Amino acid sequence: MATSYSVQISQEIRGIRVTITNPFQDTLIMEQDRSLTGGYRFNAHAELTVEDSGAHVTARLYELSREHCRLHVSNPFPVGTQVLVKIYAWPHFLQVHGTICHSEVNGVAVAFSEIESRYVAVLNACLLEIEQKESDGCD
Known about the structure:
139 residues, Thrombin, subunit H, globular
């Protein structure tokens, strides 16, 4: 006889209580979902390139954090696809290796897996600019 159960996660994200009930316990997905909170609104041109095939699409980055980014893309890749994300945010450029952890009709979320040391400072500079703009009230 199979036993059914559900895992319930309740978390407050930017003042909104979010509750997710999942009948299948999948630790990897839950860990990735937790890492997707806390991003900043950020507008930049981007490119996604699939690591194995070289297939690529242009995208519009709209959220950025130290652990992930979210992008609008017309032809999203499936969850689990390993990609290289190139972000063009003048005067900054950075590229980050990651995995598609969420995919829907109009966009994807990429969990970062590797950032080359030369791009860590660039990512930090972008995030610092965002934090300064938000603290000055200039959204």
